Amino acid sequence: MAVSTAPRPPLLQGEGLPPFEAITPEQVSDHIPELLEDLEGELAGLETRLEAALSEQRPLGWQEVMEPLQRLEERLRWSWGVVSHLHGVCDTPELREAHASQQARVVSFGNRSGQSAVLHAALLNLKQQGGLDATQLRIVESELRHMELRGVALKGEEREAFNATSQELAKLSTDFGNRVLDATNGWTLLLQDPAEVEGLPQSLRELLAQAARDGGEEGATAESGPWLLGLDFPRFGPFLQYSQRRDLRERLYKAHVSRASGEANTASSADAQHPNEAASGGNWPVIERILTLRREQARRLGYANWAEVSLASKMAESEAEVERLLEDLRAAAHPIAQGELDDLRALAARHNAAEAADLQPWDVSFWAEKLRQERFELDSEKLRPWFPLPRVLEGLFGLCDRLFDIRIEAADGEAPVWHPDVRFFRINDSSTGEPLAAFYLDPYSRPGSKRGGAWMDECLVRSHRPDGTPVLPVAYLICNQSPPVGETPSLMTFGEVETLFHEFGHGLQHMLTTVERPQAAGINNVEWDAVELPSQFMENWCYDRSTLLGMARHWQTGEPLPEEEFAKLQAARTFMAGAATLRQVHFALTDLRLHSQWTPDCGKTPEQLRREIAQTTTVLEPIEEDAFLCSFGHIFAGGYAAGYYSYKWAEVLSADAFSAFEEVGLENEEAIRATGRRFRDTVLSLGGSRHPSEVFEQFRGRGPSAEALIRHSGLVGAG
After folding, report:
1. Are 703 and 693 in contact (CB under 8 A)?
2. Domains of the chain and CATH, by start
3. List 74, 503, 565, 607, catalytic entry
4. For labelling alongside 197, which of 68, 148, 212, 258 has CA 20 to 30 A away?
5. pLDDT digits (tens, 9 = 90+) for 404-423
6. Contact, 43 vs 112, CB < 8 A?
7. What angle do CA 57, 113, 456 make, to 5 degrees?
């Protein structure tokens, strides 16, 4: 009988770079069930072999347990990862429906493997045999803990309830994110009077005019309009910062903070909203249901609440330890944030502005920008021409060569992409020329089909194929920055530059790993509250003189950023730092207490609990329309539940890591290169093969200190 040589369907390929454009929603519905059926058979076969070995009381080896399990899990990670990736970067109603139709089956299979008593017994056997190296032991212990948190010890009705709840939670999280995306996309406001765009910089007018043209307003121009306002950040953020029309700032702000809440927009009955929001109550009932179900799951697993479940696999040891960190930061930041608000009120009064006596949240960005310009003579919008994306990438890649001895080269056309804007790059070792990794970069905002924010994700993980040939890591790097307009390239705000450096830090940890076991390669098996260390570390280099001045060149003239502008950026680094720190503390504390203190019968809603927390973590009380929780995707549609504090926890590590470079002298090229190489060989190389405390001490020579973070944040004087 002839063996078929027909190529496998794209979603069953299971390895290599995904053929994105060949993948259709119909294939998701057709082939994910086929994949899961195959994997069920493989898992059953593995269990049969392991059960036989266990019954014979035969010691098990790594190749017998972990390698087939990893190959099985990788096939699902690859295929479902492609579907989830496309759902995030080029969503369509058909793809969304196909994703939703298969999600329950994927979750069901995850529960099936995570609750396998045979696998759990085999892992215990493997651990008890001894002979594992440190990386293998850490992987096995992590896998055992993961299975325990997936309910491996549950029996009968308890297991059935746990699995049903897991299914429901997965669906609720997807629904939450979809509703935020729909609400963001569903609100627009057409501006037709030139007075409505008074004060807006040229770049924003061009972006709003392009949005109007894309929306069917042929002939829209930056000069004469019309201009289409929206809630995606490239339009929303700068409008609040520069618009002189306080009424429009208010209208936009209220639309943004009430997204996905189900409330009628208070700015105007004509403003669009997601058609199902009002009827469904938006995300409010989803939030309560998610929190209730997570608490039930925690109880089934033997924990008091979901915060305890979350911290079971984190670097922080207890809720009390996290609360102490957040309170230290809150106490330091609150009086400074109050002083910053007083400064804004005083500035508004000097300008005889009506809002001086009643400053509102939609006024803060506007007056903060005025104060920044006055205090530092720094206009963030006017810096855009010095940060065209191609030059910023050159600067970022040059820094990586300097610090980590790697060469990054464009490889556009060498890999399939999901959108024409997407670029592909390869990374080689500068000294040896050895290929190390590759990455995709999807830099621009696409409000209609791409979720907001910025992230790094895994395309391929460092590993070996069954025949021993290496698989090099490939990363997805996704941003949502201002797109090019006409012949003008993407001119970035300094904040967008920092975001790109941040995500690239995540990418570096994924791509420069030397760990050969995929379960601990790159970001895998890194405790969640340590995973932001490389990303936040990279942000510091945006303020390094040689790095910044090396990449900041005017897109038309090639002139470098003037020294005095760099000095202003340095001076303004801690501008409004009290408010920024307090904002993060508010988010983190709200997240932690929702998952530790809130219950359906506690006598208050999640929003009421959040507003209680706001009394000490904000200096401007949230307005009545503020429904921030309804768009808090990090904790309700992402992986940060009871873990949002991780940003601040890891910032302690990242600031201290950067201070190692400060200590040897940022102009001491030889010492900087040596320190950078040590960072590559520890933090970027060791991934999840060691505990983060051990990795940090190997780089720094000691445990972490918060002194550098406090100094960098300007919350108190150094020392």
Report:
1. yes
2. 10-153 (1.20.1050.40), 187-280 (no CATH), 385-573 (1.10.1370.40)
3. 503
4. 258
5. 999 999 999 999 999 999 99
6. yes
7. 125
